[in-house]
């Protein structure tokens, strides 16, 4: 019995320690958003499968806590979402990504599409749409060069206000992708109503392409669904030439993954792009 009570004390101590660590992490993240150096965007190329052309990049957030080791986005983004800090963090990401695509356009590294991840709490905040509108108007970026990635679960929340917000974003010349598609449970009737441009096949179904019996039918179904709805389909997490070959056979339009490149800092991405374009 005494051991049980000890176990509980250990458990609540561990909970308290975890809570304290989360608070410390959020404080540091808040400071990083105000500061200049600890947050950085990495860029992972997206490839058009029929031509091999690089058609865009996905911006992926990296945080070096205290300038030291990277903290994984899977770790700090959910915390930022729960605490509301995602609104400021998302605004930081939007500004950094738009500044980068603006700079690339200005320097003649043009025709790339910048895909930016948007979380639910950020999307829902009253400041989101006005912020995007202001930035897009101010930078006067060419239409079609910015895409927002929303997740399938978010797309399901729905209804009228979502459709309206997406419509206004599209009127600004932005395109919309549904991320992690296939992992949630979209109603197809509802999907058809959403003004979206692209479906991103969840990595799990791309990984499963290496095991034909389990995963192949789902990737194929998403590609066919995209075609039926007039949406572009992109596969993420493509790691092997075999997966790529299968995607080409199914006539999936685009792909992204370690097979082509890992997410890279801007300067490294530029070097990668230049090396790839050599004859
Ligand atoms: P996601 O949007 O689904 O991003 C794809 C993740 O898969 C990225 O992880 C990317 O580095 C990784 N990945 C890309 N290719 C491959 C591959 O071939 N194999 C494998 N195993 N992984 C691959 P990352 O950068 O760690 O980001 C994790 C998640 O954090 C993202 O998932 C996204 O949900 C979130 N995230 C990242 N940056 C942002 C951001 O700026 N804003 C928001 N709201 N969320 C972000
Ligand atoms: Ca994404
Ligand atoms: Ca994804
Ligand atoms: Ca994901």
From TrEMBL:
Residues 22-277 form the EAL domain. Signal peptide: none annotated. This is Diguanylate cyclase (GGDEF)-like protein. The lineage of its organism: Bacteria, Pseudomonadati, Pseudomonadota, Betaproteobacteria, Rhodocyclales.
């Amino acid at each position: 019995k005494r051991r049980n009570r000890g176990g509980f004390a250990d458990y609540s101590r561990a909970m308290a320690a975890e809570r304290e660590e989360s608070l410390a992490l959020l404080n540091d993240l808040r400071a990083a958003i105000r500061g200049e150096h600890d947050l950085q965007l990495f860029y992972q190329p997206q490839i058009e499968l029929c031509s091999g052309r690089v058609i865009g990049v996905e911006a992926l957030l990296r945080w070096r806590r205290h300038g030291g080791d990277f903290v994984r986005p899977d770790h700090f983004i959910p915390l930022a979402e729960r605490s509301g800090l995602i609104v400021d963090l998302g605004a930081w990401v939007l500004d950094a990504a738009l500044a980068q695509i603006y700079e690339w356009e200005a320097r003649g590294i043009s025709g790339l599409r910048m895909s930016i991840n948007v979380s639910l709490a950020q999307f829902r905040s009253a400041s989101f749409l006005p912020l995007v509108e202001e930035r897009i108007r101010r930078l006067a970026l060419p239409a079609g060069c910015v895409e927002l990635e929303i997740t399938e679960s978010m797309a399901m929340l729905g209804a009228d206000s979502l459709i309206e917000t997406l419509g206004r974003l599209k009127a600004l010349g932005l395109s919309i992708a549904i991320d992690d598609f296939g992992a949630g449970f979209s109603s197809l009737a509802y999907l058809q109503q959403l003004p979206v441009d692209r479906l991103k096949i969840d990595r799990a179904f791309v990984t499963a392409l290496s095991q034909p019996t389990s995963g192949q039918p789902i990737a194929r179904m998403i590609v066919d669904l995209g075609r039926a709805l007039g949406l572009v389909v992109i596969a993420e997490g493509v790691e092997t030439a075999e997966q790529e070959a299968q995607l080409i056979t199914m006539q999936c339009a685009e792909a992204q993954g370690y097979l082509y490149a890992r997410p890279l800092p801007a300067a490294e991405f530029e070097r990668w792009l230049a090396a790839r374009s050599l004859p």
